[in-house]
């Protein structure tokens, strides 16, 4: 896995996972181009690229406008396709916007990409949300797809485009279904982006952490460096036997256990609250990932325990606080 | 199941199945409104409504413009949601158009509908195409969803909207996954609309019928009157235990057997051809439907054998030929 000199494109590269990946690639000597429209609310933050900004070329545009940047894109060898909106809340509030960002833009992007870079290797960032309420745990890639929000429906349609265009030989895509990710460069001022960002924000501010219900719902958070490693491993391979790949499963911790670790790192107290009206119907209960396919296929291994990752994350935000909590 | 006096809305009611349903509803005394944009290539034909045109109110507009027709829609009791593009070929040629017709329009329609008619009963016309290549036969509703074309991806996203908005109580939808349907009012001059319309056209013209490969691929065609019955049964019920329902499974016939029946009814000869280049990769092989769920839940029973249905179909087109083969 040697990215030195490789021409790579990172869509959504100003966002959380995309920027961590772009910075790592630049440090490894890759020639990195980012395309990102910096839609408000999706986590784009120029500060995320600070360590390597001069080494990375950034196209500030929607991915659906790829043809307009044909010259800059030609010759790309690998695409890491991270662009999109991940907010469950926003997707329920404005499903048409979510459709545009997650499905329509992706379709136009891929149709342009197959013209400009036929057969290209693509690694797409999908989500565990496509599974909906778990019918068994841990969830493997054969679990039924039953998203319980618009975001999941739209991300899954985009994943299906990747699968379809891979079957037809137009591109060569892998689809990584990501569990809850945390780490440096996550947006802390967008509560809709998920429970972990919200928890870290409160830890950073020394505030209490609220748990809904009994807090026993399990998650399997993964530190962003481990996720970046999964993308790098997937990007370096071609023609994998199956496009879908779960990425998760380091630790299975209850939200209460996660919150307790953050209390030890500076948050206030745990506060238990009843589920708000209507929220329970969209609660998926516990979630944990069967990651045996990616372990066996790519040799991936999530290395960072949550307690260590939490410490690294808070150290980053304490140093760069003004860029994440302005 | 009594539709007399009921206010029903049929989207896509100028098309094949929609018009058969609308005519039947009007004859049963329902107060029928159609909304149909008559997009070229989707099978809309004003002649389809001839027997009952004066009893049916037609809004010629895209379903996504529902709010503009709020006054006409208020008070609707049941929606039969048949609007969409069914062509595999067109969806591969212009996936963005297919996304607009089958997904974006449906999303806007349903978001408007939940405002105008909260909790309303909706029966959505989905398709066996969402299953993709069968992993087992006959296919039941638990079969994995793996559409192998853009049409299937987009129809499935729209079906997922129905499922999601039913789970949240905004509407009360059933999703009928239809097998190959044939009968009066099918478009004969749009070859992209499927193999059966194409076969009937050739039978009507006394032309030879081409079979690709050995013609042994099985289908389970259903006569449109049986399909109309399934929609009427589903529309008359509320709160079914599961939204997805296969509709098919009267006869399992090979394409060769289907073609032989049409030869007996006036087509020329059978002609065997090799699969055209690139076609084999999107061939799903044989298909047959496990319809036990709809049988048990609604008491539905497909009654018309293919040979009888074929005769009825050809008789209709011989009488109305100038409206279908201009």
Written description of the protein model:
The structure is a homodimer of 326-residue chains. With 326 residues, the first copy, chain A, is α/β, with parallel strands linked by helices. Chain A has a domain at 7-187 and 222-249 and 289-302: Rossmann fold, CATH 3.40.50.720. Helix content of chain A is 37%, strand content 16%. Chain A has helices at residues 16-27, 70-73, 88-93, 95-116, 150-167, 195-204, 224-235, 255-264, 292-298, 306-324; strands at 7-11, 31-35, 56-59, 78-81, 121-127, 172-178, 181-182, 209-212, 218-219, 222-223, 244-247, 253-254, 270-273. In chain A, the strands form four sheets. Chain A has a seven-stranded parallel sheet with strand order 3-2-1-4-5-6-11, with helices on both faces. A two-stranded parallel ribbon of chain A has the order 7-10. A two-stranded parallel ribbon of chain A has the order 8-13. In chain A, helix 1 packs across helix 7 (224-235) and helix 4 packs parallel to helix 5. The longest helix of chain A is centred in the N-terminal third of the chain and has 22 residues, at 95-116. Chain A is globular and about 55 Å long. The model of chain A has no long low-confidence stretch (mean pLDDT 95). The A-B interface holds A 95-96, 99, 103-104, 107-108, 111, 142, 144-150, 153-154, 156-157, 160-161, 163-164, 167-168, 281 and B 95-96, 99, 103-104, 107-108, 111, 142, 144-150, 153-154, 156-157, 160-161, 163-164, 167-168, 281.
């Amino acid at each position: 896995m040697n990215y030195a000199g490789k021409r790579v494109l990172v869509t959504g590269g100003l966002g959380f996972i995309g920027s961590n990946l772009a910075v790592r690639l630049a440090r490894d000597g890759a020639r990195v181009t980012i395309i990102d429209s910096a839609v408000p609310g999706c986590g784009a933050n120029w500060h995320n690229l600070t360590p390597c900004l001069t080494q990375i070329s950034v196209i500030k545009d929607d991915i659906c406008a790829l043809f307009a940047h044909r010259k800059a894109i030609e010759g790309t060898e690998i695409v890491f396709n991270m662009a999109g909106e991940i907010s469950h809340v926003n997707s329920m509030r404005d499903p048409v916007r979510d459709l545009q960002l997650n499905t329509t833009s992706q379709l136009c992007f891929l149709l342009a990409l197959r013209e400009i870079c036929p057969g290209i290797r693509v690694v797409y960032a999908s989500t565990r949300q496509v599974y909906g309420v778990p019918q068994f745990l841990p969830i493997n890639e054969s679990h039924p797809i039953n998203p319980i929000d618009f975001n999941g429906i739209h991300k899954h349609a985009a994943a299906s485009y990747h699968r379809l265009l891979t079957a037809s030989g137009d591109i060569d895509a892998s689809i990584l279904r990501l569990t809850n990710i945390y780490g440096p460069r996550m947006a802390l001022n967008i509560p809709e982006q998920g429970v972990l960002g919200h928890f870290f924000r409160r830890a950073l501010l020394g505030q209490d952490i609220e748990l809904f219900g009994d807090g026993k719902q399990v998650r399997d958070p993964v530190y962003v460096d481990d996720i970046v490693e999964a993308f790098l491993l997937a990007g370096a391979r071609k023609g994998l036997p199956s496009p879908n790949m779960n990425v998760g499963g380091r630790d299975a911790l209850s939200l209460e256990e996660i919150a307790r670790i953050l209390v030890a790192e500076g948050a206030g107290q745990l506060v238990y609250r009843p589920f708000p009206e209507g929220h329970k119907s969209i609660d998926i209960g516990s979630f944990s990932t069967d990651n045996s396919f990616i372990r066996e296929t790519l040799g991936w291994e999530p290395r960072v325990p949550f307690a260590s990752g939490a410490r690294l994350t808070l150290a980053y935000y304490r140093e760069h606080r003004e860029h994440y909590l302005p």
